Structures are given as C-alpha cells and as structure tokens.
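Postdoc handover notes: sequence design on the structure in folder B. Input tokens:
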C-alpha cells in the first residue's frame, strides 16, 4: 500500500526551473521568490489508511482537473511586487506542480496585474506580453503541455504530464475590437471571463453599483467566443450580466471560481438564480478557495470545511453533474498579496468587513496542496467513485468538449 510520504500521480519532471535557458542577472533581474509548496506547514486532511489508499488510487487513475489556478511564484518580499510585475517575467512552480496530483490546470496567468505599460492592468500589449513570456518558458520544458484541443487533456495523464488550459479572467483587453478574440485563441487562450470586477465594453462586473447587463458588443463577443471555441466564464460578472451571458451563449457557460451567496453574502459569491441558470444550460460551477472567499456561518474561519460546504450546497442545488473545483491559488503569500492589490483588483468590494481573518487557507494553500486534500475529503464523506470522478474532472471535460472547436 502506498504511504502518505509517497507522491500520488507523480509527473515526469526533470528538474527544470523557469528561464534556466537565460542568464540570470544579465537577461533579467533576479528576485528572491517564495517557497513553492513549503511556505507553510503541509497539511494532509486526516483519513484512515484504507481511505488514503483509495484517495491515492483515484489520484493515480482518474483525471484530476483544477478549473482555476495561478501557478506563478510570487516574490518573497512583496514590497518588490510592482517592480517584479513591471519586468513582465513570471516564474512557474514546476517542481511543486510535479507533486500536485493534477493532470489539467486552467492557468489564468497574472493579467490583471500585468503592469508593464500601465498600473491599471488589462492592457492589450501587456496581456500579450504576459501570455507570450509564460508560453516561451513552457516551450523550454517537457512536463507541462499547452492544451489547445481536448485530446491534449486526455494524453497529459498518459504521458505523465500536466496540460495547461490558457485562461483569462476578463475580456477587458479586447476593448471594442472583436477580432482580438481570434488573436487570443490563436495564441492558445481557451477560456475567458466576460468581465472582471470593473465594467468593460461587454458588461458589468461585480463591483459596479448598477448592473446594466450584457451590452450589444458583449453579445457579439460571446457569440464570437462560441464560434472560436473559447469557453465563456462569468465568475466576476455582475448578476444581470451573468444571466444575460448565459442566455446569449449558444454553448454552456462556466463559473470557474466562486461559491454560493446563500452561504456567504458577498458579491464575489453567486446567487442561487445564477447558479441554477448556469447549470440549466449545461454549465459547471467550480468552487474557489482564495483566502476569505468561500466562508460560511458554520465555518467562519476559512478552511477546507467551509470550502466543501459551498461544494455540497451547490451540488444539492443543481446536481452533482454541474459542480467542480477551481481553487484559485498561487505560490506565495496570497493574503498579503490580496492586501497589496486590494484597491487595484476590487478585492475589498468582494469581501465582508465582519469576516474572520486567516493567514492562509489550511489544506488549500497552494496549487500543489489542494486536490489531494479535496479527494481525501470526498473519500472520507463516502462519495461514490463515479461522483468523485465527475467533480474532479469529468464534468469539466464534458463542458470543454461542448465548447471547444473540434
């Protein structure tokens, strides 16, 4: 029997570190980066030896998919963050990912903080730079593959690799240029949010006091994404914009990192009406774990129990076929990074003043830690193998098969 000390679903990792093909100090400025998956004490959700054996079997045999992550490694000294981002060169936590148990990751880059030419973020040239640099780094190693067709998702596990699905959280950078969606698809982007927290040309974000819904241009953009094979996401959209997007899209829409507002009354969570509408059109709702998001009154301190309470509530509301997980984690001090970026990324508008502050979300701190603990939790609660298979990957694959170009 495999012990906890052994790695479930290990990847064929050869020790590659980001940008090792360049000369440090000559081609780029060196920053001390955060530890990848050793920054805080590792936490393993407690299970019996038999449950651990089953969890390991699931990780080894089934497709494990995270619908929302940022796999970059933050600077250890976050006072250097803006200077670091201005350089436009993000490191990927390849080593930690090799022991994450993940087969497919929706990589959301850091485009809201791509601040090479503007501190406002979301600028076209900055986003293109951000995507290009990351994919250049990925092209120099062999563990992570760029997923552009559904066959890439399936072959990753067979080859002991991880498939990265290129994702952006907003369409803000396309401005009023519809053909920019074609360019992004050509570069490898396969899912996009219609809007981040602030309104853009497509519609209203969750921060706006008045949500006027999806604009005429927004409807055109959604239909273009349908035609291109870009999965449409509404995680950060306002409620009316979300409902309009679901109605406009000819294909299923996702909520790839959120929770249930009925459990935690925050704008960042989705109301039952939106969750049910998303599921009714074949979509999937993935539960997020970014600090101070999926909290509940039963578990006011954000942890895996509150996170999974949002999962169970959503599954009970719309059925097990429409839920998944998009933890929305990164490598570094996520809480302090949120504090640093609070005014720029509308984080304050998505949080509640009465929430219990945590230093990190125990058991869900980084992309390498989440899914072994999620699987352990599901096994511990007696979920069937088929239901576990659905929520850790199968439901997401179904939506991608319906929304991507064949």
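Designed sequence:
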């Amino acid at each position: 029997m495999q012990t906890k000390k052994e790695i479930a679903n290990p990847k064929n990792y050869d020790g590659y570190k980001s940008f090792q093909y360049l000369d440090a100090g000559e081609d780029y400025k060196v920053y001390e980066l955060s530890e990848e998956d050793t920054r805080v004490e590792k936490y393993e959700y407690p299970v019996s030896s038999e449950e651990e054996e089953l969890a390991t079997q699931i990780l080894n045999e089934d497709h494990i998919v995270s619908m929302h992550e940022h796999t970059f490694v933050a600077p250890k000294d976050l006072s250097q963050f803006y200077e670091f981002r201005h350089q436009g060169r993000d490191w990927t936590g390849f080593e930690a990912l090799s022991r994450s148990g993940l087969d497919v990751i929706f990589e959301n880059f850091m485009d809201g903080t791509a601040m090479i030419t503007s501190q406002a973020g979301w600028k076209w040239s900055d986003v293109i730079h951000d995507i290009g640099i990351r994919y250049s780094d990925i092209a120099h190693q062999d563990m992570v593959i760029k997923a552009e067709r559904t066959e890439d998702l399936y072959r990753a596990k067979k080859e002991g690799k991880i498939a990265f699905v290129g994702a952006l959280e907003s369409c803000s950078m396309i401005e009023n240029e519809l053909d920019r969606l074609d360019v992004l698809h050509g570069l490898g982007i396969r899912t996009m949010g219609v809007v981040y927290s602030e309104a853009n040309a497509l519609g209203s974000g969750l921060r706006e006091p008045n949500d006027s819904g999806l604009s005429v241009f927004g409807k055109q953009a959604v239909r273009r994404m349908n035609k291109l094979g870009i999965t449409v996401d509404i995680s950060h959209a306002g409620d009316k914009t979300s409902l309009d997007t679901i109605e406009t899209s000819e294909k299923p829409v996702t909520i790839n990192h959120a929770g249930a507002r009925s459990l935690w009354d925050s704008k960042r969570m989705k109301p039952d009406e939106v969750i049910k509408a998303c599921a009714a059109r074949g979509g999937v709702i993935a539960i997020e774990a970014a600090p101070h998001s999926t909290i509940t009154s039963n578990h006011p301190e954000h942890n895996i129990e509150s996170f999974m309470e949002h999962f169970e509530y959503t599954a009970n509301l719309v059925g097990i076929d429409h839920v998944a997980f998009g933890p929305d984690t990164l490598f570094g001090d996520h809480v302090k990074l949120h504090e640093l970026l609070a005014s720029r990324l509308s984080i304050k508008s998505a949080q509640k003043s009465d929430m219990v502050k945590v230093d990190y979300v125990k058991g869900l701190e980084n992309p390498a830690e989440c899914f072994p603990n999620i699987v352990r939790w599901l096994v511990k609660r007696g979920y069937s193998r088929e239901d576990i298979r659905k929520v850790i990957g199968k439901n997401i694959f179904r939506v991608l098969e319906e929304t991507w170009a064949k």
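Context for whoever picks this up: Strands lie at 65-69, 104-107, 144-146, 162-168, 189-193, 231-233, 254-258, 284-287, 323-325. Don't rerun without checking with the PI first.
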